[in-house]
Amino acid sequence: MLIEEILPSTHLSERHRMAAAGEPERVIAAAAEVTWREVPLTRKLMRIGKDKLDTLVFDEMAAQLGFRELVRTEDELVLGTVLKLPAMSPVPYVSAEDSVLDAFKAFDKPGHLRLVFNFCHTGGALHTLTRGQATSGAGAALTRISWIFIRLGSGMTRKEWLRAAVQRHQRPAAERGPGSGAV
Description:
Layout: H1 2-6, E1 12-19, H2 24-32, H3 40-45, H4 57-65, E2 68-72, E3 76-84, E4 89-90, H5 100-106, E5 112-122, E6 125-134, H6 137-170
Antiparallel strand pairs: 1-6, 2-3, 3-4, 3-5, 5-6
Helix pairs in contact: 2-6
């Protein structure tokens, strides 16, 4: 998986999968087009209002946490962000002349967490992997402690997102609703 090349060593990691037959590109597109309406538990956990039910989850994750698309292939989509520790607030890390991927890989300012997650379709399943790497020793310790409390919610949200993506992919095109143009 490309995500493992982007962030080869980590201080946190979490993996989930769900059976998903179909063309990889269509399954990945379905994951990218999940709306808050399709993930009600995640919506409540992240305190997303009902006014955003038809908003793409990716769009809101970008707005709230600074996630940006790092790479997309036929069978994998990788998103990443850089968070300032301990507040876990997103920080800008890309200048006008840098590619998002290169800037993400090069970011090494102490006191931050580089965080990536993906959706990858392989072997008849949709996989998601979350990986995080702190940029300093103190940050690594803080990340490991924080992950104890965050991991349960993170796992729940990723599993719900996988279910929603698979269900979206399996619905006829006419029934997919908002955000279904690319599927």
